[in-house]
Amino acid sequence: MDELLELQELQERLTRAGYEYYVLDKPTMSDYDYDHQLRRLEELEAAHPEAVTPDSPTQRVGGKPLDSFQQVVHRVPLESLQDVFDYEELRQFDQRVKGVVPEAGYDVEPKVDGLSVALEYENGLFVRGATRGDGQVGEDVTENLKTVRSIPLRIPDAPARLIVRGEVYMPKQVFHALNEERERRGEALFANPRNAAAGSLRQLDPKVVAARRLDIAVFNIQWAEGETFRTHLETLDYLKQKGFKVIPHYTADTIERAIDHVAEIGEHRDGYPFDIDGAVIKVNDLSQRDVLGSTAKFPRWAAAYKYPPEVKPSRVVDITIQVGRTGVLTPKAQLEPVRLAGTTVTSATLHNQDFIAEKDIRIGDTVLVRKAGEIIPEVLSVVTEQRPEGTIPYVFPTVCPVCGAPVERDEDGAHIRCTGAECPAQLLRNLAHFASRDAMDIEGLGIAVVENLVGAGLVRTPGDLYFLQAEEVEKLERMGKKSAQNLVEAIARSKEQDLSRLIYALGIRQVGQKTGKVLAARFRTMDALQNASLEDLTAVEDIGEITARSILEWFASPQSLHLLSRLREAGVNMEAAEQGSDQRFAGLTFVLTGALERFTRDEAAQRIEALGGKVSGSVSKKTSYVVAGEAAGSKLRKAQELGISVLTEEEFLTMLS
User: Fold this and answer.
1) Does domain 73-305 have CATH number 2.30.30.40?
2) What integer pLDDT is reported at residue 577 of this predicted model?
3) pLDDT exceeds cutoff 70 at 492
4) Superfamily of the domain at 312-386
5) In CATH, what number does 424-570 get?
6) What is the average per-residue pLDDT within 399-419?
7) What is the pLDDT of residue 185?
8) b (16+ CB within 10 A) / e for 245-257
9) Beta carbons within 8 Å of 592's beta carbon, 6+ residues apart
10) Which has more pLDDT, 300 or 656?
């Protein structure tokens, strides 16, 4: 088959398969076949770049990272809705509507709790997507929205210009999986799907957005050049025919029937793939909407009913402590089972010691519970008049319940942490951090392999990595002989990493990558750092007392000493590399911005540091030079405002050579 013909057929076939999977929810192609054919399409498009179309399935992977978002003035304002909080207010809304258009009927829709966006098409091609912003001006997030698979990149038989409005959301299933992954990596959890969707859509790197698997529900036509519609239902049918995933909806001739639909949506809210925070009631007839018009803030033809949070009593049967991947001790209330927002709740987070003390929560108390954001159970208050006699205030543990190491309170917050360097509860996170690119840079040791090694009992501390045998690793799931040998060799190579990387890899609180470099440059050996006093540490530039005490406490822990002993036994390097004689950048601070052609940012930073310079992430009066690559944004503007010297990549290369 001619390659160009095959390319075109693959584009059409994969576009259709994506529509069936992401919009119709009726896949006709397996994930394996889709991925295999997509790879073939990528090969063909690489060979024939002139045949790549803007709506090709390959264009959804995300382009280059952005430095900032551009503003967009909405052609049609994205209005917000007036909230109502009980059925009587809905009846009053109906009275106002019927006072102007007595024959009005309604459309009722679930109110998706996500991020509102406008999608703009020219001659059927998706050309721009923008957030709502303040309703008049939003942000251009076109590249990020291209990664949302249910948004068509081209629509058939389209008007010259079409603008539609929808709500981008993170499906509940994706949200839970994302939070599980973030917890495994020791990252902060998203509070609810809306925060996750909003945070994802405003990522500057579209590839990160693509990995978040966002979705959309389209609910309105803002502008359709040359098209006429009589009712809102006609517009939804039109959008569905054009390939959009439209919002579920119900019709109602009377307000009482509309209220029945509102109640029905509330009863079945758990059945939707998205989180909802209410229901929207709209006048169906578009000419009646024109008659009703809008106030300065809201359209008069629509209202948003907000469901009251469901609050129920339960009894605290126990308070347990979980130790997270980062060592934080989190208390949880174990509850008598209670039904909330469609699910049975048996536990609720108590956040931290201060939360328990403030509300005086005790074992045996009756408490009022609700789901924050309809997702996470939380305790609102104690019903003190039902407190049994003999209850006592809860006392937080002074040692880690998992490993027995002392716990300590963060200097800058309410968290209490385990100080154990080899605490089993933190093992996955510690190993992943130890092997990460900026630490010991062990190629092939990702989180999945770490889980495999820990699950098989082969690794209980980062030091155990250096005693692994290829023969035992190859027996693990998804690990063959070659993969096992490559991993063992990568671990062996990491023994030669510089002291600065090892210091960072140890996971000492307050000691990041930059601090690791400062400590290695000052003390030169692990022994010297281990024997340093508080005065020695605080005398180092950029090392404050809090960081110094964290270092001292880490080296005082028996678990830390055991880990260091294990690493020394394995032959891991514990000395800093000798500084080069060329220190031409000593005393200079550089900021890198935009995309460089000849370096990654890490490579450029390494070249600067090898010549004695420092690299900062922000521009200030202390900045010596800003190196500006392609698409440099806010950092370049700030440098120009402050009069900081700006280097092109060619000028930077000249300085290096």
Assistant:
1) no
2) 80
3) yes
4) Nucleic acid-binding proteins (2.40.50.140)
5) 1.10.150.20
6) 86
7) 67
8) bbbebbebeebee
9) 601, 604, 605, 615, 626, 627, 629
10) 300
Enter the DSSP assignment of 183.
H
Number of C-beta neighbours around residue 241 at 10 A: 12
Evaluate if residue 30 carries a pLDDT over 80.
Answer: no
Between the alpha carbon of residue 581 and those of residues 486, 497, 516, 578, the distances in Å are 35, 20, 21, 9
Which residue in 406, 303, 307, 319 sits closest to 363, CA to CA? 319
* Alpha helix segments (H runs only) across 48-159: 87-98, 142-145
Tell me: the pLDDT tens digits for 564-603? 999 999 999 999 887 666 788 888 899 998 888 888 887 8
**Mean pLDDT taken over the chain:** 88
Q: What is the pLDDT of residues 530-570, one digit of tens each?
A: 999 999 999 987 899 989 999 999 999 999 999 999 999 99
Query: Looking at the domain covering 3-60, what would its CATH class be?
Result: mainly alpha
Question: Structure tokens of 586?
Answer: 């000593």
DSSP annotation string for 381-409 = EE-GGGPPTT-------SB-TTT--BEEE
The residue length of the chain stands at 657
Helix, strand or coil for residue 107?
A: strand
206/511 Cα distance (integer angstroms):
30
- Tell me the chain's radius of gyration from C-alpha atoms: 29
DSSP state of 190: P
Catalytic residues: 111
